[in-house]
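[Q] Does anyone have a clean structure-token version of this?
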Amino acid sequence: MEFTDLSRAKVGSMGVVDHIDLPEDVCHYLAHLGFLPGTTIEVLRSAPAGDPRVYRLDGVEVGLRSDTARHIYLKVAEPVGAGR
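[A] Here you go.
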């Protein structure tokens, strides 16, 4: 398992939130969206220009811009079907 920030995780990968390095008010807002340590996140897709990206957590799809996502750190698992 490797660590990365959410903005660098590959489309199709999944990971578990390790920590978030943002001001308390932003962390509070993200927590209401479900971005909490221990939450599993799947990277679904990127906008045509690459930003924002869409993530799935707890069955909900959420779009985040890379300037926010780069402060959310994940333990990333290999994508399904990787290594074949």
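[Q] Thanks! Anything notable?
[A] The chain has one domain: 2-41+59-77.
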